[in-house]
């Protein structure tokens, strides 16, 4: 396992044994307190999964597999800068699935990507994604600015418009309705009414 994985363009450092912080995963998921790691760890199915990882059946086999599974699959650090719950990648994926199927797919992909590509390639990819997102954002902003109607100073009211405003006001029509009818601002219509 590499020293870090990338999920949603966030680089997550792994501990010295390659475990990932469930607390960081929870934070990245953007879910509330109901999806905190402690709630997941209380589930019977979670305890069964931990027991299965710790079982001798999974620890036998190739030395590569043992080196990965012979570490404690779950560690909780209560103090210091690195406090939190750290879990083996199989547990981290299961936790992500408990949060949501979509988040599980993101975590699965992050672990697959970390095994495929060297870290410098991931950093370059992250930069390209960020650059591409930035370019798309700029294009969107430019399009919005181009489509925005230019603000011009309003033309002064003509004598006829002022006369119409006064007549409509005398008929009891509200100034807002007068403004809509004449396609003028509320403040311009109010100013004429106040003059009168």
UniProtKB/TrEMBL annotation:
PROSITE patterns according to UniProt:
KILA_N
Stretch forming the signal peptide? none
Q: Which Gene3D superfamilies match?
A: Homeodomain-like
KilA-N domain spans which residues?
Answer: 1-114
Q: The organism sits in which domain of life?
A: Bacteria
* Identification of the protein by name: KilA-N domain-containing protein
Which organism's genome codes for this protein?
Answer: Phocoenobacter skyensis
